[in-house]
Each structure stands twice: as C-alpha cells, then as structure tokens.
Amino acid sequence: MAADYPVAKWFAALRREWMLYHLGDPRFRFMWDNPPANEWVALDCETTGLDVKSDDIISIGAVRIRGNRVMTSECLELLVRPDKQRISAESVRIHRLREQDVAQGLSADDAMMQLMHFIGSRPLVGYYLEFDLAMINRVLFPMLGMGLPQEKIEVSGLYYDYKYRQLPSHTRIEHQTIDLRFDTLMHDLGLPLWPAHDALNDAVMAALAFLKLRQLG
C-alpha cells in the first residue's frame, strides 16, 4: 500500500490539473487549493421536490467544522428563489417553506457564489449528500463546466461502517442490513435530534454525527 501512495498522489495531482484546465471560471481556482488542516463543511439543501433533473433548491444550510468543534458562529443559511418549479403542498409539509417565503430569496447562481466562497477547498460532509450535490452541481455546471471538486464524506456510510464493525464476525454478510435512518443514527450516537428538514439544522446535526463517528473510530 505504501508503494502505491506516490502513484495515487501523482494521479490526484494530474486530475487536479485537468480539472483546473477545464474550469469554466478561473475565479474559482481557490476550490482546488490545499484545504485548511482539520476543517470540513457540513451541507444540506431543501428543495421543491426529489427530482434532481427538474426540481429546484429553495434553501441551503452549511456550517464549518474545525478540529472537534462545530463552528455554529461560522454558518451559512440561504433562501433560494426557485427558477421554474412551484413548491408542492407535500414539500411544504416537509420543510415548511412556502412560495411566499422564498419569493425574495437569492437567485440560484447568486446562492452558488456565496456557497462556493463559504466552502473554499474544505471537504464536504452530509447525510445522503449525493442528492444535495446533484442539485447543487446542476446549477454549477453552466458556471464552472463541472461540479464541486472537494472531497465528499457521507455520514450514513461512516455510520454503516461503525455498526458493521460491531457485529460478531460470524454474522457479517456482504450487504448487512443496518438501519440508516437519521433519527435512528442520532439516537444511537446519543446526539440531539433537532427539527428536521431545516437546512441549517440538518447540516449542524450531520456535523455532530461526523465528529462523533470520528471519535468512535
């Protein structure tokens, strides 16, 4: 493994140069800088629905993590004006954001500008982060020619690995069923469960879970 490390590092550097070469807007080269040591950004979005191809982001919450602390004084909370999609009654029941609540929000492009500067080059943390990034990257592609380049850390994956290691070896199977629901995860880790489907709340809870799972190894 040690012998492979220089090769992996070389490929990472090559990939970085390739992405910078194809970057649509050179103002955002800072996202490829070396990240600050022991810093991350936890991220969450609320949307008009669950279709990554047609639904819109209506709120973004993000908070920085430094060392073993969630820096709630360094957070980002944005309301985003949807481009085309109306907010369905079902979505309002989930996140409690109505069309009049976001009508004066930022445009999606302006929200992305603020988000990119807030994140910088820090790795991203989230719970089912893939969906949030798919929504964000759909807005970013016309601006950058690519999505967010930072390292991604999935809290549900960390939790799965933690629970899997606790199983007796004779009971382990390749696709062991483990309850990955967020309320189950937070309760099991002894962490506070705040009102869900609020983007900033969800980002802070994901950050707390990330730190706890790092401590548990």
Describe this structure in words.
This protein has 217 residues and is an alpha/beta fold. The protein has a single domain (33-216), classed as Ribonuclease H-like superfamily/Ribonuclease H (Nucleotidyltransferase, domain 5), CATH 3.30.420.10. 43% of the residues lie in helices and 17% in strands. It contains eight helices and five strands; from the N terminus they run H-E-E-E-H-H-H-E-H-E-H-H-H. It has helices spanning 5-21, 89-95, 99-102, 108-119, 129-144, 155-166, 182-188, 199-216, and strands spanning 39-47, 57-66, 69-79, 124-126, 152-154. It has a five-stranded mixed β-sheet with strand order 3-2-1-4-5, with helices on both faces. Strand 4, helix 5 (129-144) and strand 5 form a beta-alpha-beta unit. Helix 6 runs parallel beside helix 8. The longest helix is centred in the C-terminal third of the chain and has 18 residues, at 199-216. The protein is globular, with a radius of gyration of 18 Å. The model has no long low-confidence stretch (mean pLDDT 87).
Quick overview of this protein structure:
With 217 residues, the chain is an alpha/beta fold. It has eight helices and five strands. The radius of gyration is 18 Å and the shape is globular.
Text of the CATH class = Alpha Beta
- How do the SSEs run, as a string of H and E? HEEEHHHEHEHHH
Strand order within the widest beta sheet: 3-2-1-4-5
Number of structural domains: 1
Instruction: Give the structural class.
Output: alpha/beta
| Overall pLDDT confidence | 87
- Low-confidence stretches are none
What is the rounded distance between the termini?
21 Å
- Beta-strand percentage? 15-25%
| Fraction in helix | 40-55%
- Contiguous helical run count: 8
- The H-level CATH homologous superfamily, spelled out, is Ribonuclease H-like superfamily/Ribonuclease H
Largest sheet: 5 strands, mixed
The number of distinct β-strands equals: 5
CATH architecture: 2-Layer Sandwich
Shape from CA axes? globular
Taking Cα atoms only, what radius of gyration do you get, to the nearest Å?
A: 18 Å
Fill in the CATH topology: Nucleotidyltransferase, domain 5
